[in-house]
Amino acid sequence: MGFKCGIVGLPNVGKSTLFNALTETQAAQAANYPFCTIEPNVGQVAVPDPRLDTLAAIGKSAKIIPTQLTFVDIAGLVKGASQGEGLGNQFLGNIREVDAIVHVLRCFENDDIQHVANKVDPIADAEVVETELLLSDLDSLEKRVPNLIKRDQQGDKEARIGASVLGQALELLREGKPARLTRPKDEEEARIFAQAQLITAKPVLYVCNVNEDEAASGNALSEAVFAKAKAEGANAVVVSAAIEADLVTMDMDERLVFLEEMGLHETGLARVIHSGYDLLHLITFFTVGPKEARAWTVEKGSKAPQAAGAIHSDFERGFIRAETIAYDDYVVLGGEAAARDAGKLRQEGKDYVVKDGDVLHFKFNV
After folding, report:
1. Is 8 a residue whose pLDDT tops 70?
2. d(Cα 271, Cα 215) in Å, to the nearest integer?
3. Which of 7, 9, 82, 285 lies most in the core, judged by the most C-beta atoms within 10 Å?
């Protein structure tokens, strides 16, 4: 199961620099002019989780395999993108394919780096991008909803459901509100709403890109973004893309020293990755053995067969049960054998809801 976060924002806000640091590559060309990124760049990044190292040490695992998120660097949006300005239609199509939006906002002053509006105002920048995304969704639904209403009048049951839930989204968009505020009343409405792939229905993380000396504390511009995020029920983090780019070139010991000197407890990228993980409502479960200790990703609320399917479809199809040990029990007792002896290894069936940190072993038959 793959989860994609699309990095968006106006040109020259630090998107490609952030992407390069996230994926520790130079796949995205970072340059001081608009539209330097013509095609979306895709990279996978490990989700930092110290629990995995602890489990691997206890299980004497030969390999450690973390879970991953996919980040897509999408070229800069400009005003009028919803009408095809810049490379608008292409950009909007790329955004539509991701699961969540990481919205990078420029919160630093630098006369050497051009700003498309010739002023640094992250709230205004956010509104430019949000308006284009909203207009794109509005255009889509104003074409789609009348057709659904017509089919509903002809007795099409699915069209009636679509007209109800997408009609609600259309009204929100007309009021200048994102489609994510739509509240489907049942599973059928939720399914049809998800199939619509509305851009403004996607969860958003604001990334405030600040100067190096403001990475620990932020600044007045980033504070304004945090206030905006709080009002929307969204998330926000502060990052210095320049610092993150420097950290990529250092070994682990050098990174730790550098972060301490900058007054930082962890990298900004770790905060972005964890926030992206939370944004998508994901949890981690583990499998541990002598060959490997591995982290796996599933959505919150997933049941044991779905978790088994994250490993292999055969595991889900032939699911019998899941041998389950809570992370704390595994660590405190010192492994699977001791947990079994202490009665902390549980046999869970198809209705078991997987918890974050569970150490699982699946029994299946196909």
Report:
1. yes
2. 12
3. 7
Count the neighbouring beta carbons within 10 Å of the beta carbon of residue 233: 10
Rounded CA separation 309/360 (Å): 13
DSSP for 88-154, please give it. HHHHHHHHHTSSEEEEEEE----TTS--TTSS--HHHHHHHHHHHHHHHHHHHHHHHHHHHHHHHHT
CA–CA separation, 192 and 121 (whole Å): 37
How far CA 8 is from CA of 250, 285, 296, in Å, comes to 27, 30, 27
Nearest to 77, CA basis, from 28, 30, 40, 25: 40
| 255-268: pLDDT as tens digits | 889 988 888 888 88
Buried b (16+ CB within 10 A) or exposed e, 69-106: bbbbbbbbbbbebbeeebbbeebbebbbebbbbbbbbb
Where do runs of H (alpha helix) occur along 7-82?
15-23, 50-59
Pair of tokens at residue 188: 């059928």
| Rounded-to-integer distance, Cα 362 and Cα 146, Å | 48
Beta strands 359-364 and 346-348, pairing class: unpaired
**pLDDT class of 278 with cuts at 50, 70, 90:** confident
- DSSP classification of residue 303: B
Give this prediction's pTM.
0.79
The pLDDT, as a whole number, for residue 118 is 65
237: CB partners within 8 A, 6+ apart: 205, 206, 207, 208, 268, 271, 272, 275
**Sheet containing strand 100-106, strands side by side:** 41-46, 68-73, 4-8, 100-106, 204-209, 235-239
Question: Which tokens is 232 given?
Answer: 């929307």
pLDDT in tens, 299-309: 999 999 999 99
pLDDT value of position 10: 83
Cα–Cα distances (Å) from 56 to 254, 336, 337, 356, in that order, read 25, 12, 15, 17
Range scoring the smallest mean pLDDT among 32-41, 191-200, 236-245: 32-41
Q: Answer whether 70's CB lies under 8 Å from 6's CB.
A: no
